[in-house]
Write a structure and sequence with these properties.
The chain is of the alpha+beta class. It contains 4 helices and 12 strands, in the order H-E-E-E-E-H-H-H-E-E-E-E-E-E-E-E. The strands form 2 sheets. Strands 1-8-11-10-9-12 form a 6-stranded antiparallel beta barrel. A 4-stranded antiparallel sheet has the order 5-4-2-7. Strand 10 and strand 11 form a beta hairpin.
Length: 279
């Protein structure tokens, strides 16, 4: 067989075989999964860790207590402030005194109207009545002050308490109970949200018209047999000048934990979209 004669035919066949593969490769790009939310929690004040109420890997709910500094002094102060705020003895005493002096003042007013009470006695009764009014007002203000004091102490205790800002998984616990910590020591608990993962890729700006927020794209893990559908959540309006690509963030549902964070995924672009080079 004359190879030179059949060379054009062979090249044509090779081109026909490779073209779909190259097109498929151009219609896909690679990104890495990340937690949808991730946060490192630290105490804003120095102290000694009293409790760590979770373990690494625990599922936690929003506002659940994760750890707390020693707050026993503050807790005692809070009990005293609440007791004072809830007490009605001072208000009841001042109210009873006010009622008595009001009745005395009104009685002397009636007597004075018939010239049976002197002016000095009436003036003294009026002054005592006004003092009783002021005493009752002071009793109410003192109760309000104790209530505010209790609220202030509660806020101080809350500052010494780490709570989960969202439903998530405890990824790391850096310190143990009884350890002394300061704000400069870094995070105490790291929390991640894995019910959904972010998948960030970079797309050639000339092909962004084929994408739109809310569009579903097929994705597959590069090293595991896992396939799924991710939704375009964000397309950056800023193009990276060095690569000519825009950052695109997809949301990957993960309620069953079938997808792992930090894993490379191939994103299959719609027809006509070409993958850009990641910066």
């Amino acid at each position: 067989m004359n190879l030179r004669t059949h060379l054009p035919t062979l090249l044509g066949l090779l081109f026909a075989i490779l073209t779909p593969a190259l097109a498929a490769e151009d219609a896909a790009l690679t990104g890495v999964t990340e937690p949808m939310e991730q946060i490192d929690l630290a105490f804003p004040e120095p102290g000694v860790i009293r409790t760590v109420d979770v373990k690494e890997g625990d599922l936690v709910k929003k506002d659940q207590v994760l750890a707390q500094l020693d707050c026993r002094v503050l807790e005692s102060q809070l009990k005293i402030a609440r007791m004072k705020a809830d007490s009605t003895a001072a208000i009841q005493s001042a109210s009873a005194t006010l009622t008595m002096r009001q009745q005395r003042h009104e009685q002397l007013q009636r007597l004075a109207a018939s010239d049976n009470a002197n002016a000095d006695e009436l003036a003294r009764a009026k002054a005592e009545f006004e003092i009783a009014q002021a005493d009752l007002q002071l009793a109410h203000e003192a109760a309000a002050e104790h209530a505010l004091e209790a609220s202030q102490i509660e806020a101080q205790i809350e500052q010494r308490t780490l709570r989960a800002p969202f439903d998530g998984v405890v990824a790391r616990i850096a310190r143990d109970p009884a350890a002394s910590v300061t704000p400069s020591d870094g995070p105490i608990v790291s929390l991640v949200q894995l019910d959904r993962l972010d998948l960030v890729v970079h797309v050639d700006h000339r092909r962004l018209d084929s994408l739109a927020q809310g569009r579903d794209l097929a994705v597959e893990s590069l090293d595991r047999r896992v396939q799924a559908t991710a939704r375009v959540e964000f397309i950056s309006p800023v193009i990276d000048p060095s690569s000519g690509t825009a950052r695109v963030r997809l949301s990957l549902p993960n309620e069953q934990r079938q997808h792992l964070s930090g894993v490379k995924y191939r994103v299959l672009l719609p027809p006509g979209a070409v993958a850009g080079t990641e910066p």
